[in-house]
Amino acid sequence: MTFRFRRVLVMAAGLVLAATLTEAQAPAAAPAPAASTGAAAAPAAASAPGSEFPAGPGRDTFIRVCSACHAPEQVIGHGQDASGWADTINQMIQNGAQGSDQDFGDIVQYLSTHVGPMPSQINVNTVTSLDLQNWLGFTPQLADAVIAYRAAHGKFTSLADLEKVPGVDASALANFKNALTF
């Protein structure tokens, strides 16, 4: 799916009154490959803006464009599909986001791929730190602790195994127990 952003700018006393999105009808593109979730991946530097976001087409554009107004991490916990992210991007355009239609399309594609809505089943043995933050509301520190524990102790086989991670709240996990797979 490709997106074509069309800005309808009506200037009145210097104010942008509207911005709209139109979805171009195009053949469906092949899905982007899933991000590697192996334990061998090197942890990202905590100080680099957007360092917790996986590599992929549109990542650098997302960080460059969105960082002009806010920390890229603000998207965590707002997992949306492509239509939802397109609506959000249109709101950002109304608020003054600067970029080309290509930039905004790349950002929608990146976010819908890597910060999408929570799936019905989450495999805790393949999930990334960003996924834990986005879908389960974990702090970056707790999400990283789960990934580190998994790397040090092997795959989780049950909810009880996951509860052994220091800082994991068993009662909070209870809300997601039917969505977690091992």
| Class from helix and strand fractions | alpha+beta
Quick one: overall form? elongated
The side-by-side strand order for the widest beta sheet comes to 1-4
End-to-end CA span: 32 Å
Total domain units? 2
Can you walk through the features of this model?
This protein folds into 2 domains: 2-114, no CATH class; 122-181, DNA polymerase, domain 1. It is 36% helix and 10% strand. The protein is built from 7 helices and 6 strands. A two-stranded antiparallel ribbon has the order 1-4. A hairpin with a 2-residue loop joins strand 2 (11-12) and strand 3 (15-16). The protein is elongated and about 50 Å long.
Please tag this protein with its features.
single chain, 182 residues, alpha+beta, DNA polymerase, domain 1, two-stranded antiparallel ribbon, 36% helix, elongated
Per-chain topology:
Elements: E1 2-6, E2 11-12, E3 15-16, E4 20-24, H1 59-66, H2 82-94, H3 101-114, E5 122-123, H4 129-136, H5 140-153, H6 159-162, H7 170-174, E6 180-181
Parallel strand pairs: 5-6
Antiparallel strand pairs: 1-4, 2-3
In short:
The chain has 7 helices and 6 strands; from the N terminus they run ββββαααβααααβ. With 182 residues, the protein is α+β, with helices and mostly antiparallel strands. The protein has 2 domains: 113 residues, no CATH class; 60 residues, AF1531-like domain (DNA polymerase, domain 1, Orthogonal Bundle), CATH 1.10.150.280.
